[in-house]
Design goal:
The chain is of the alpha+beta class and about 450 residues long. The protein folds into 2 domains: about 200 residues, Pnp Oxidase, Chain A; about 110 residues, 3-Layer(aba) Sandwich (UbiD C-terminal domain-like). It contains 11 helices and 20 strands. The strands form 4 sheets. Strands 5, 6, 7, 8, 9, 10, 13 and 14 form an 8-stranded antiparallel β-sheet that branches. A 5-stranded mixed β-sheet has the order 16-17-18-20-19. Strands 1-2-3-15 form a 4-stranded mixed β-sheet, with helices on one face. The longest helix has 22 residues.
């Protein structure tokens, strides 16, 4: 099975699921509980005061659960994702989706969560939007947060220049509204694929099908003509209105508030949902949000850098950099010029990056302490520092020029100099220390 319920069952069997039966509120309580367990278990809320739906959060909040979602282990996540991108395959279409069990016209029946005190309202944060590419006729899948205005309208956040926005602008230029479909509550492999920024004209749902070993099926919707995963918990279809906007602001990956924007408005045509549905909520700026958005990029960086440089062993998007702005590249250095070439390529592969640190193969790129140690013992600021000024950066970084999307970037070569004696950098080890068990000596 390739649906959310199957994944939740697997997480439960691995003892990584908390189930909450006590009544809880969508007004900050669910967000607070999710934040408290951040980095540990997924949470299933079965009794929500404002809705008859169930709700799950923190689904892929750890690399272990991310690995479960892509059918791999913590050690081969990137190989699984890169392989799925290369072997992307169109899913089969079935006549009837499971989500067609129930139908409604009221968006507010869902347990839409209020997350942070100064946001403009509650937000649907796990919603994947499907639209037709005007040039190729293929579908596009991407994440977009939605804020309710009334029972049949949402504001929809779109980043200018990204694929859905391009589809919307094309429809607007033809004096048309853009028909879209939206899913909430899908297998995380579909969410992971939706977070990946595929090339224009490519359909991310094909990547999801590959991650799910070809077991994903789609069902076609009557109003929009679009195809969505047949096992989706909730499906909305309607149109983004070409001539209406609504003000909103939200918390982003960095746990900071974005500036106020006027965003287009989605108008509902039909809402479908499974019996006893599960709504999926993603807490902005916390581990699930960061891993959902950052891990596909981390996989991309691993694939591209390893293809370009045989020296590259591993690329990690650091937790301290919100899994988005900072990267650490572990290499087996062959030449003193290697790190700066790799820094340049890493920035080119993910332009939101603000900092890249290159370390040797004896340094753990996932350990902030280990990386700082490398900087302390192998880095000289007058020789090993790369500064790039006035270049395209992330719109999320509040320290940058967010209007012009300009920032400064820093590359750090924290590798051993090949001109110095290698013994001077060797970390001393105590033989057989791993075999010593303190319980044997202390009672």
């Amino acid at each position: 099975m390739s649906d959310l319920r199957n994944y939740v069952s697997k997480v439960k069997k691995s003892k990584e699921l908390h189930t909450v039966t006590k009544p809880v509120s969508t007004k900050f309580e669910i967000a607070g509980i999710t934040a408290k367990v951040d980095g540990s278990n997924a949470v299933l809320f079965e009794n929500i005061r404002e809705s008859n739906f169930r709700l799950v959060s923190n689904l892929v909040g750890t690399r272990k659960r991310f690995a479960i979602a892509v059918g791999g282990t913590e050690f081969n996540i990137h190989e699984k994702v890169v392989s799925a991108i290369k072997k992307a395959k169109k899913p089969k279409t079935v006549s009837l989706g499971k989500f067609m069990e129930n139908k409604s016209k009221n968006l507010l029946s869902m347990p839409i969560v209020s997350h942070f005190e100064k946001e403009s309202g509650p937000f649907i944060t796990s919603s994947i939007v499907y639209a037709k590419n005007p040039e190729t006729g293929k579908q596009n899948s991407s994440f977009h947060r939605l804020m309710p205005i009334d029972k049949s309208h949402f504001s929809i956040r779109m980043v200018e220049g990204r694929h859905l926005h391009r589809c919307f602008i094309d429809a607007k230029e033809h004096d048309e509204d853009l028909k879209i479909a939206i899913t909430i509550g899908v297998h995380p492999a579909i969410s992971i694929a939706g977070a990946y920024q595929a090339d224009w004209g490519k359909d991310e749902i094909d990547i999801a099908n590959s991650l799910l070993d070809g077991k994903l099926t789609l069902a076609k919707l009557a109003f929009s003509g679009l195809c969505v995963p047949s096992g989706s918990e909730i499906v909305l279809e309607g149109k983004i209105l070409r001539d209406k906007t609504h003000p909103e602001w939200m918390v982003e990956m960095l746990q900071t508030y974005d500036h106020k924007r006027s965003q287009p408005v989605f108008q509902l045509e039909n809402m479908y949902f499974r019996s006893n549905p599960i709504f999926h909520d993603v807490l902005a700026g916390y581990s699930e949000h960061r891993l959902l958005m950052g891990m596909p990029i981390e996989s991309k960086l691993n694939g591209e850098l390893k293809q370009s440089f045989s020296q590259v062993k591993q690329v990690s998007m650091s937790n301290g950099g919100c899994n988005w702005l900072h990267a650490v590249v572990q290499i087996k250095k062959k030449s003193n010029s290697d790190p700066k070439k790799i820094i340049k390529k890493t920035f080119a592969s993910h332009r939101s990056l603000k900092q890249v640190i290159v370390v040797d193969e004896d340094v753990n790129p996932n350990s902030a302490e280990s990386v700082e140690y490398a900087m302390a013992t192998r880095f000289q600021a007058d020789k090993d520092l790369v500064i790039v000024k006035n270049v395209r950066g992330s719109s999320l970084d509040p320290s940058s020029d967010q209007r012009k999307l300009q920032t400064a970037k820093m590359g750090i070569d924290a590798t051993r100099s090949l001109f110095k004696r290698p013994e001077g950098f060797e970390m001393a080890k105590i033989p057989k220390i791993d075999k010593i068990k303190l319980a044997k000596y202390f009672k």
